[in-house]
Amino acid sequence: MSANPIILLIGVAIIIVTLVGLLDSFDGFERIRAGRRAKGAWREPTSVGVGGLRRLLGRLVSRSPAWLLWRLLGVIDQKSRSAEYESITRFPQDPSARPIFLLGFARTGTTTTQRVLSDCFSYNASFEPIGFNHAQYEPEAFSSISARFRGQPDAESLSMYSHGGGTFFALHTLGDSELRDESVSQLGAYLDHLFQTYGRNVITKEVRLSGNAPTLAKVCRDLSSEPVFVLSISDPLVPAYTFYRAGGLIDGKDTMGVDDQYAYRRRTLESIDKEHSMVRLPCRNRLEKLIVSILIEQAFLRDFAMQNKDISFLLDFEHLGEAIQEISRKFGLPVAGEPSVFPRNLKRYRQDAFFLRMVKDLHPDLMAILAEQYGWDGAPDVRPSLRSTITRARLGLLPSV
After folding, report:
1. Dihedrals φ, ψ of 185, to 5°?
2. 20 to 30 A from 345, CA-CA: which of 111, 222, 331, 352?
3. pLDDT of 218 over the 70 cut
């Protein structure tokens, strides 16, 4: 007599969840996933053995059914297509090269872009040096600069990041000149260390410094280098969909700091123009807050590019291949290699019926901006797919996990 299909499915589910838990039990696996491959940040995974397997099974038994189902659905849900998080030092240092700064909102393709630029132009890569101490900066000094240039200070500490009307998100807005000069000096000392570690032929990708492009340009020139700025301008719904899939837009707990990002960027913009449309727009939910945050940050990048056309390039991640050739021509950078990774199917959100329902309910002013600046032509009428249904099911479980 053939086995009951439901029993078989349950058996397969148990095996998959066990394997996922087994991977999580390796000390090195989380380090791979976080991309922390700097010296001292990696060690080989240790053998699990009988004792480790017993502990693993104990962990699985102690988990709630909601957690087990959430992990199971995660195995078959959509995966991130970002390149690995790592810094690169494989190219010989070139003291005559122009340092490249890659700035943009989180999850707009900056990690993949950094890898492509590194491959094509034979540049080393400093991956998010405000968040990761891959360059082995003095620990106390690194902690200080990492804290000062946080991308999303929480509500309790937001007042500490606002001085004299401006914020650390954009140092040039700070009204306290002494504090501003101190912060610029601190950033300059760190950049000098990065140049010594990676050479001037380095692509520094840092999503926490998008509002500080003017300060980075000044500091570079103080260090006798003429910088290049590659500024990632993305359809806001692309990163918004990534936040959605990762649980960043669910009600209740702010799992990905969307509220904090919005408050920080809004306060910075308000210090410059209290009547700006993005300041006055009432946000009714996290999706609207996230989109406004992206629009504010990209407004800073566009403004910098407009005022510094000779050193700036606005990059549309959807056309990265063409952008490589344009960057090469504009800044005289020879294309020396082929990219090891490349983006594909960037607008997956247009195939997710549940996410598109959220988009259809956006504030009319936001819809108008998306149409004007990004060519948004309305949400397509699509039916829920298996993938989108799985994603929605996982998000429904997240508050209970």
Report:
1. -65, -40
2. 331
3. yes
Report residue 37 as tokens. Answer: 């491959």
| Residue 165 DSSP label | T
Whole-number Å distance between alpha carbons of 345 and 343: 7
pLDDT tier at 202 (50, 70, 90 boundaries)? Answer: very high
Q: Are 184 and 177 in contact (CB under 8 A)?
A: no
Q: Which of 254, 261, 253, 255 is nearest to 161 (CA)?
A: 261
CA distance 380 to 350: 7
Asked if the model's pLDDT at residue 389 lies above 60, the reply is yes
Provide Rg for the chain, Cα atoms: 23
Tell me what the pLDDT averaged over the chain comes to: 84
Q: Which residues contact 322 (CB under 8 A, 6 or more apart)?
A: none
Contacts by 179-186, CB closer than 8 A, 24 or more apart: 183/148, 184/215, 184/218, 184/219, 186/144, 186/145, 186/148
pLDDT at 19 over 80: no
Are 169 and 161 spatial neighbours (Cβ–Cβ below 8 Å)?
yes
Q: CA separation (Å) from 38 to 35, 195, 338? A: 9, 16, 24
Check: pTM over 0.85? Answer yes or no: no
The CATH number for 100-331, chosen from 1.10.540.10, 3.30.160.140, 1.10.3210.10, 3.40.50.300, is 3.40.50.300
Q: Would you say residue 69 has pLDDT above 60?
A: yes
In what helix (H) or strand (E) does residue 315 lie, and over which residues does it extend? strand 312-315
Amino acid in position 211:
G
- Looking at residue 78, its pLDDT comes to 60
**Can you say how many angstroms the Cα of residue 396 is from the centroid of all Cα atoms in its chain?**
24
Find out whether 398 and 74 touch, Cβ atoms under 8 Å: no
Domain ranges of the chain: 5-63, 100-331
Task: Tell whether the model's pLDDT for residue 27 goes beyond 70.
Answer: no
List alpha helices for 199-247, DSSP H: 213-222, 237-245
Per-residue pLDDT, averaged over 353-382, amounts to 89
110-137 residue pLDDT tens: 999 999 999 999 999 999 999 999 999 9
